[in-house]
UniProtKB/TrEMBL annotation, chain A:
The chain crosses the membrane at residues 21-45, 51-71, 78-96. Keywords: Membrane, Transmembrane, Transmembrane helix. This is Iron transporter. It comes from Pseudoalteromonas aurantia.
Automatic annotation (TrEMBL), chain B:
Keywords: Membrane, Transmembrane, Transmembrane helix. It comes from the Bacteria. The chain crosses the membrane at residues 12-36, 152-176, 197-222, 350-372, 393-416, 428-447, 459-480, 486-504. Pfam families: PepSY_TM (PF03929). InterPro entries: PepSY-ass_TM (IPR005625). This is PepSY domain-containing protein.
Amino acid sequence: MFISHIGTWFKSAPFLVCSRFFAAIVGGYVFSAIAVSLLAAVVPLPKTDSVLLAVSLSILVYACVFIWVFSVRKLQKVYGLLILLGTCQAVLLAFIKGWL
Amino acid sequence: MKDSFFRSMTWLHTWTGLLVCWLLFLIFFAGTLSFFRHEITLWSQPAIHDVAPQENRVLSQQSQITSALQHLEANAADAETWWVGLPSERTRAIEVSYQDKGKEGKRGQWHDQFMDPNTEETLNEYRDSKGGLFFYRLHFNLHYMDRTVARWLVSLASLFMLIGLISGIVIHKRIFKDMFQFRKGKGVRTWLDAHNLSSVLALPFHIMITYTGLVTLIFMLFPYPAMTQYEEGRKAFFADLNPARQHADITGNQVEMLPMKQLVDQFYTNWPNIDVKRVIVDHPSDETAQLKFYANTGTKVQDEMPVWIYNTVTGELVMTANTELSVSETLYDGMIALHTGRLALPGLRWLFFMCGIAGCVMIGSGAVMWAKRIRERMKVGKTASFGLRLVEGLNLATIMGLPVATAAFFFANRLLPDSFTGRAEAEIHLFFLGWLGVALMALYKAGTAQWRQLAQFNAVLWLLLPLCNAFTTQGNLVSYIVKQQWVLAGFDILCLITAAVFYIQSRKLANKDAANPAISRTLKGQVV
């Protein structure tokens, strides 16, 4: 009884909406943060220039991810791809920076 | 698939918009006024109204800087910082300021004064007022709250704005057609047309200003590239980017500085043709003292000013910075410069201002449209939900309240006595008190009658403002035009235009009431 209650709650519209906003705002933010940090690490420019270029593009990345989160029908796919791609980029960044 | 994408974007547009529209309206409103912040500051300082513009602005700077620094040498020997702002295309008097030494971790108090650029004598009546700076700060720091929290809120609202713009374009089927379409007197349709028109006409501006606005706060929002590229973190990045920004803490060891005149002359021997914007002395008479000359970037796409730093004891040039920008720096600086409109000549500045107003219309009409739509769909005789009434109240409070608050701020500037302690703060309190008054009224009732009354009230306030100005200062609209003081004349004319717009609005709302007595009765009786 209790379990099925939680089950329906997870499928309720308010929860799905909040979850999607969470994915867009927080998930999108973390994803963009990793992506632009990686960008700064890979562009062949002096350090200050690569940082400025990366931050100048960060909002563009964030906005695109945000819109994408709302355009995909399945929420699982959103979370899955965000986590998968985010992790890949983070690992790559850690590898380039020699943290591993 | 395409249909569902379209629907999800419509949904996203509506809800991200509604969630932040009132905060966004405030940000846009304050930002739009900030394009004229120096002009507003000029208006709020009657002492410099009659300062004549200079003929050879750049040529007289050497002697102006010397006089200003000598004045500070004589009057503020124990200050933490000396600050001299030179007249530019938009500011008229020399601003001579100094900051007391900070005590117990608190920053020292600033003392401001004006100097006549022609006679180089200090003007005594400095009015304690923030002027245009208030709107500039309000635009991203809000007020009565922690700066960092405020900036995150403003950033979130801006992000939602950007999302609203992108999703708005997606859900827009006929972007070109809407540019020429305005269906008058058709209820929600008309509001939709107003929303589309104000969005589409100024669309490049809206996208540019929202994006670059977020970029101005980017090192707070996305410090990560700097943090990962520099092991010592953000500070190391800034030190690398702009070495001129760093300066040592005060040590307290007194030294004998060279006379200011000698240092200024030395700068001019080497760099005779620089248009100087400001001169700063950090820690005068301390062993860490530095003299800094900042050049005016004028219409260049550059935000960080080129700077020359001198050691005040030896007179040696310690550093020059920002004279050449790399491509990335140009990209970043260009975005900031676009946002602040610092490079804009009057024509472009007015275009920015108009686009800012279009932004306010876009946000306001979007918010009003939401409420109208819900009300239209409501069954007759049903009472409005709490949510709908809240939205209607907030719409009225924001859209009609901010002009009232702004008028209150300007009246306070003219009517508060100069001797009033905490005058600048009192002006700001009156701004928010004016707003609070309207908000209380709006949250109590927000029907057509209230819109009309506030439109009338606004019309009266803005009509009285030039009159109040004429009675409390030496000048008035006629004298401004005769003396060709276009900034002051422009201010008065804008007040009168604002009053006229509010008057027309009140007439329209009155007609609506008269044409539809039955509806207005139900509005008054039941739903509102």
